Amino acid sequence: MAIVAVSVGATAWLAVETTTRAIQEERGQVLSDDNDILRQLGGFAATHADWDGVQTLVRTLSRTMDRRIALTTEPGYTIADSAAPGTALPARASATVEPLNTDTYTEPGAQLAGIDPRAVGPYLLPPAEQAQVKTLAEKRLACIGRYGFGGSSRRIPSGRTVVTATVPLQCADGELNTPTRTEQKALDELNALIDSCPDVEQEKRTPLAGAGIDLIPGVNTPASDSGRPLGQAQSCVDNARRAQLDPYVAPRARLYLGSLGQQPAGFNLSPANKAKIVGVTGLVLAVTVAMTAVVASRLVRPLRALTAAAQQPPQRHARVAVTTKDETGYLAAAFNDLTARREQMETQRKAMVSDIAHELRTPLTNIRGWLEVTRDGLLPPDPDLIASLHDEALLLQHIIDDLQDLAAVDAGTLRLHREPVGVDELVAQVVSAHRSRAEAAGIRLRTRTTPGLWLDADPVRMRQALGNLVANALRHTPADGTVTITARQAGDLAILTVEDTGGGIAPEDLPHVFERFWRAEKSRSRRTGGSGLGLSIVGQLVEAHGGTVTADSPPGAGAAFTVRLPLRPEPERLSP
Q1: pTM for the whole thing?
Q2: How distant, in Å, are the alpha carbons of 391, 498, 513, 531 from that of 503?
Q3: Alpha-carbon distance 14 to 20, whole Å?
Q4: Burial track 209-248 (b if 16+ CB lie within 10 A, e otherwise)
Q5: Given 357, 389, 411, which residue is the final one in a domain?
Q6: What CATH number corresponds to the domain at position 338?
Q7: How confident is the model over 279-298, as a mean pLDDT?
C-alpha cells in the first residue's frame, strides 16, 4: 500500500508538473509562432502594394508552423488560405494585418508608434544612394574610433545605414544625417501633407529636420495660445505619414489561425514534450517496479523458506528462522510453534503406542503363561489359578474400556444421558464400590458431603470420573492412610474434592497429571502404576459436563483433586 500510494502520488505530481511545464512551453511556442506568422505577413504587406503573391508565403508558413493560415479582406473575401477551398474559417480572426496601424511589436526589438518600420514607401534608397550613405557611416565610425570611442552601425529597412555611438564634436560633420535626393523628395511630400493639416497653426509649422523613416518626424509646435496640446501636432504628422505610405502597402486584412485538419486550435504537445512526459512516467514506473521487486523479494524469501520447510519429511520437524516482526514473521513463528506441537504430539504418540503395547502385553503375557503351564499339565486348573486369570482379563478389559472412552471423546461420539443426580448419593455409591479395596489395603475412606446438592449429569459417567479419582488416591496412599471425599457448594458450583495422605506430586509433575499414559511413578508396578489413562478420562468426562478438574499437592501433605461442576435446582419430589 505504501508503494502504491507513493507511486500514484509521485506519478500524479510529476505528470502534472511535467504537463503544466510542457503546456506552458507549447503555449509560449504557439504564441511565438503566431507572432512570427503575423510579423512575416506584416512585412509582406509593408513591402507590397497589394496581396498578390502572398499565397506562396501562406503555404510555406503553414508547412513550417504546422498551422492553418487564412487572410481575408474586411468584407470577408478570401485573399489566401492554406486549407482546401471551401473549408470553413475559424470562429474569429486572430489578428489584423495593417502595416500603417499596427497594435503589436511585429519587428523583434523595435517599439513601434503604430507604423511598421518596414513600410518605407518613397524613402527606399536606390543602390547608389545606399552605397553613398554606407560610405559616410564607415567614415564616421573610423573618426569615432580615432578618438577612443566605440560605436556600431546598422541598416534600416529603407536601405540607409545609421550609426549608434557617442559622436565627438570633431566627427559631427552632418554629412551622414543629410537627406539624400530620394529622402529629400519624400520629406518634401510629407511636409506638403503636413501643411494641409488643419490641426496645426500655419505660423508654427516648420520643415522636418530628420532623415529616413527610422527617425520619427517632428515639428516645433509649442502649445498655442488657445491651449491646443502638442500631441495634436504629432497626430497630424502620423496621419500625414500614413497618407504618404498608403499607396505603397497592401490593404488591411484579417488573419485567421487554426490547427490543421479543421481541429480546434489548441496546444498540441510537441514530440519532445510528449517524450518528456512518457519518460517521466516510464521512470516512475521503473522505480515502482524496482521497489516492488525489492519488497516482493523480501516478502517472498521467508515464504519460500516456509514452503521448503513444509516440504521436508515429517520426521525431520524442520523449522524456519524468524527474521521480521511483520505478518510473515508471525506466520514463521506460528509455523515453528505448529512444528513444535507436532513434534511433541509425535513423541506422545510414540510413547502412547509403547505404553499401550506394554499395558496390553503384561496381562496377555500372564494369561498366556498360566494357560501354557496348565496345558502342559504342570499346574492343575484350580480355583486360585482361574481367579488369577480372571483378574488379568478384567485388567485387560479395563484398559480396553478406557481406550474406547478416550477414542469416543476424541471422535466426538461420547454421549451423555443427563438426569438429576444427587451429589451425596453419587459419593455414597463411589465409596461403596471402593470400600472393600480400601479395607484390604488398610486405608480409611471418609466422606463429608453437604446434602441437597444436585447435578444435571450422566450418573454412570460421573461415577466413573469420581471412581477414577478415588482409585488413583487409594493407589498412592500407604497403609494406615486416609482418603477423604468432600462435597460442598460454592455459589452456583458443586465442589467435589478427593484428598489423600500419600507422598504427593512433585511441583514439576502437576501440569502433566491429566496427560494420557503419564505417571509420576515410572516403575509400572501393580502397587502404584496404573494404565496412565484414568486421570485423562476424568478430565475429558468433567469437561464434557461443563466443569473443570484441577490437581494440587502441598509439600508433604499428599494430593488433592478438585472437580467443579454447575449445580442444578433440586428437582420437585412427587407426593405419594
Answers
A1: 0.43
A2: 27, 15, 15, 19
A3: 10
A4: eebbbbeebebebeeeeeebeeeebbebbbebbbbbbeeb
A5: 411
A6: 1.10.287.130
A7: 79
